[in-house]
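hey can u check if this looks right to u? its 205 residues, i copy pasted from the old doc so theres a chance i mangled smth
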Amino acid sequence: MTQPSEGNIESVPGARPSEGTAESVSATAVSTAPDPADLEIVARQLGREPRGVLAIAYRTPDGQPAVVKTAPRLPDGTPFPTLYYLTDPRLTAEASRQEAAGLMRGMTERLGTDAGLAEGYRAAHASYLAERDAIESLGTDFSGGGMPDRVKCLHVLMAHALAKGPGVNPLGDEAVALAADTGLRGTAVPADWPKYENYRRDSDE
């Protein structure tokens, strides 16, 4: 599912790595206030002017802004529940590829059979809501990506995982790991992000 756009807002509606914790990942998952050059790059990435950008929440190893932290309410007053928005075209294309390959269906099925994964995913949902509500409450428990009990948009989950680092959103972590292992490691994804096989090995144990 393509992540929500500013003009198409959804109203409302784990697997654990064995190595590479959030502390060990050297990615640039540190929010920084966007400067005009960042916003110009994001505009080119999106093909439109970004609105409501509070921070660059993740910057790729090769220096590109890739996840923006967006205000829960846009300047025109429109509610925008997607706190972390994926912008780098390499990552958005990979998220779409994974969705087309059927990963979301398999992930949702695993939430029904893996209690640890389900617990971690619910915790990610709660963390997402708490962080957004600390900026402004939208009066809804809708977070994004299908959380807390389904997987509907890997763009949202990957953005959340990259912004926070591994260990917060287990399925977002998995999607980023798969992206890393299919050619984006060290360019769009941190070089030391845990490998996809680590997540699946822990899930299968």
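The helical segments are 36-46, 89-100, 103-111, 115-135, 154-164, 170-184, 196-204.
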